[in-house]
Amino acid sequence: MTTREKIAHLLRRFGLGASIAELDYYEKLGVDGAIDRLINYENYPDGYGVNCYEYAGRVDGLLRLNPPQVIAWWTAQLITTQRPLEEKLTLFWHDHFAVSASKVNAAPIMLEYVQTLRRNANGNFLRMLEAISKDPAMIWWLDNNTNVRGKPNENFAREVLELFTMGIGNYTETDIQEAARAFTGWTFRRTRLGRPTPEEIEQQVLNGEPLTTYQFLPRQHDEGIKKILGNEGNFNGNDVLGIVAPRRETARYITTKLWEWFAYPNPEPKVQEKLIKAYFDSGFEIKPILKAIAESEEFWSEKCVRKQIKNPVDFTISLARQLGLGAYLLRERKPDARPNEPIPRSVVQTANGFGRALGQQGMQLLYPPDVAGWDWGAAWISSATMIERIRVADLLFQQRPAASGGTAAIVADYVLNQRKASTSAAAIEAMAELFDAQVPASGRSALTKAFESAGGLAALAGQRTGSTVVRETLRVLFAIPEFHFC
Amino acid sequence: MSNDFSRRDFLRGGAIITLGLASPPWLAKIAYADILKLARGGKVDPDNILVVCQLSGGNDGLNTVIPYADSRYYEFRPTLAQKEDAVIKLNDQLGFHPSMKGAEEVFKSGQMAVIQNVGYPNPNRSHFRSMDIWQTANPDKVEKYGWLGKYLDQELKKGSINPILAIGLMRTSPAAFSAQEASVPCFASLADVQQLVGDPDAEMRLREAQGMESGSNASADLIRKANLTALDAMAQLKKSIASYKSNFTYDQNEFGRGFQQIAQIIATSPKTRVIYFAAGGFDTHSRQAETHAQLLGNFSTAVKTFMDEMKAIGKEKKVTVMVFSEFGRRCQENGSQGTDHGAAAPMFVVGGSVKGGFIGSNPDLVNLDRGDLKWHTDFRQVYATVLDEWMGSDSESIFGSKFEHVQIF
């Protein structure tokens, strides 16, 4: 592989797809430099920084945030961010620590949950566990607010062991019951006590202060002796997390899942050992695991490169980024907007369109299907989701060119001006490059027919006809099975 | 009709038999559902069609089927109550909202069952959760697969199914269709089908793009298969759509367009047995009167036109439309001339084989659950009835337990 090919592979897995602009930027850093830039993203601006409440509406004059607005905000963040790995990891943790707004139907609490995941995304796994266990959305979702002394609710404790750390089969039902007792009295409340006025709440939002917070109720906490995984003592929730995080089962479970998210299913024992070592040597830090993944030869092998089925974010958001829609979203918004100032409709519409497209393809942000998160890989594919994927061409290149942020003009500019394509074959070649596509011969023939029957090179130059020819061609591109691998 | 009556009598007899009063040994071994099938002449017609119509947002049941003779209705609804003389009276207690003239005609023709106070235990007042509960038919826990998805998986186990056995007329595949194996094509509109494959060349290009089965890349083959299923579904639909010219005019609104397309599918796609359709806008928290009247009017006009068309094409007795919403609304109207999320509400079941009339007792406006109507009929009883008696399926294996049927057929 050339350096550029390696960077592309890296961006498909550790980023949100390979766009020309990102390829150019990261290629200059070299492969090691690119890995470092991607993983240590907190040293760089995310390039967006829009407060979610700019998407909020007003009901009777009061600021009101609903889940679709949080989805729109997050979608715009995915499209614009200059820290793609931060989003890819946040999404991983959203899947791992799955909470759904179908139950936690309070957008501010869901927003704060997403921010908890984002803050800890490349940090320390034990810190992440502690933060998410105290997150109001998680407490609500797994009913820990009803987990009290004398009447323990096992829901949260069970998922901590089964889904969040050790994995099923590595603990007993007694461990769950005892762990549940340790988490009694962990609940949440409004950050401001008393009854804050709407004005006070709005001020909180402007200050970026969370509206809800963790609360410990000592009188509802069980102070008795608990026996968990061979340990005995008057444990609280943090003690339980401190017991499970250093378990080898946890190390294996977490590192394997990270490997599968970034590379391929069922890592070889050799790979597993390397990742487990990184987990323990660093005291449960996430970055060394990511680095070990990116630097293992298996990650660069034929078994890995372009062999993973794109999830809906990989598929959809990459396209938006390749078309430079992030720049469009940033242009449309006033740079000095305040959080209580509504964001322009054009931005909301674009973000909504992509946010909905993710849902139509089976990955509605904020709504994982159940506590276990989404099924990956082949589970993304069905005839209904494939129709939705093909129809993303319509979303990207609408009948009214302005409505899609002039995307067809971007394609036309790349094909005609930058690549100076003068034949259909050259135009197809340029488009494949723009969208980071490897096209087999059968696909190439179908693409050429679509391109030419919609007017070909001549039509591409026109504003209205340009949309049509690009849309028709990309429908075929999105129907090619090979295009759905990253 | 006489045939229907005798069947129903037998059906009641069947119910008694299962209570063990006069059960012959050979009957004891047969599941309840089988008895019902026997009661219906031994088998369910394999070409019965189910249309599920979802009213998204929580329809205000109390202002849809109005207990106009109950003075408490007027107390709960100081601005939103329909005046008694405006209500379309169906009996001495209940009537439709004044905008539901179309539904009135269907009801009076005996083709509409109104099942009152439908809900489920521990009603959830979140749209998303409650909709999930209705679509996965499980109020107790979050479930991956939908009730129709499970039905389709069972059909799949019996042998390969037609790509358009079930169709969603909506952009997003509903959770009700979510299945382990079966894959249901969903289209925002039939026009999209036309647009995607309407031009034979376009369809050919999409097929050509699939390339050859590689065998070496199982994942690519999986995608290829999914695409071809979609293309086959669209190709079948496209042909049928083109072959049909309707003589009926539907209004240009969500319901009109929806039922027009449902009619088009039924008229032309004999293999299709389940059609799922959703229309929104029922979340009327403020200034509800006008919006709600409009929605109910659009709905009932569309259903009336649809039933007329079904009659004209001889499908009247082959089609059952089941109408639901994720919840009803609070009895007491709120301070913004609207209503907040509630609990139990009426369901409609419409069709030429449906036994029309009211099922269940009238809304009880005294004994409320946190200000909302209490449920009397579990929605899974309605689903079970439809699955067993109309689709010839086995609801017990789908829901994991048995639900008492309601007398809608």
Structure description:
The complex is a heterodimer of chains A (486) and B (409). Helices cover 56% and strands 5% of the residues of chain A. Chain A is globular. A two-stranded antiparallel ribbon of chain A has the order 1-2. Chain A starts with a helix and ends in a 7-residue tail after the last helix. With 486 residues, chain A is mainly alpha-helical. Chain A has helices at residues 3-14, 20-39, 67-80, 84-96, 107-120, 125-133, 136-141, 155-164, 173-182, 198-206, 237-244, 248-262, 269-281, 287-295, 312-322, 325-332, 345-360, 383-396, 407-418, 424-434, 441-453, 456-461, 463-479, and strands at residues 57-59, 62-64, 186-190, 212-216, 226-228, 231-233. Chain A contains 23 helices and 6 strands. Chain B has 2 domains: 1-43, no CATH class; 44-190 and 247-399, 3-Layer(aba) Sandwich (Alkaline Phosphatase, subunit A). In chain B, helix 5 packs across helix 12. Chains A and B meet through helix 17, helix 18, helix 21 and helix 23 of A and helix 6, helix 9 and helix 10 of B.
